[in-house]
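From the shared-data thread, chain only:
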Amino acid sequence: MRDPQRGPWTRIILKLSGESLKGPEEHGIHQPTLRGIAAAIAEAAHTGVEIGLIIGGGNLWRGAEVADVGMDRATADYAGMLATAINAIALQDALERDGVDTRMQSAIEMREVAEPFIRRRAMRHLEKGRVVIFACGTGNPFFTTDTAAVLRATEIGAQVILKATNVDGVFDKDPRKSPDAVMFDTIAHHEALTRGLRVMDTTAFALAMENGLPIVVFNITDPRNIARACAGEPVGTLVYTPPKE
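Structure, as tokens:
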């Protein structure tokens, strides 16, 4: 029986890391990988799921790392926001080549390439079946794209955040360092926080927990997992707030 906590969902935020676009390369955008991810998103969109996208910029720029070697942190973060816009433009183009109507909205004004973020307009685009790509994070330094994903999800009334990663889900320890790591099928927000599991950064996770927003963490190595997660199949780990008894 399908777990009702897992969906199927009708409106989602899909959170992609910038690194997911670099494929086997050290940095940049690997076109075959980009096209594969776009095709998977298109598959989900064609089923009628309303999709908002947040993508990071780590394949092009990592503000925190640059700040560590002397660059002003706020300046470094603004540069990182612009990197997310480059990724968003590339993803928009790939989606539209797959026949998906898209709109890009930016938290930093750049009217030649994107609409400004307007909540009600974004929701109307979703209602019309358009995929909305939210670029430039929250528009503020010191906040990650994880936080942007939770913020936009709560603003547009998304039912879930689907967080694509390079591991299969949430584990009790780092599976890349500990072969005996155990993956959770489901875990409560509070338990994940108590255990110190890095589902998202602390600010983003606290906001998700406060709003009872479920998060599905899954592996993007197989892009078909995007459609599976949207459909409510048991992919990855579901992080949620259990219903009150």
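Residues 73-97 form the longest helix (25 residues).
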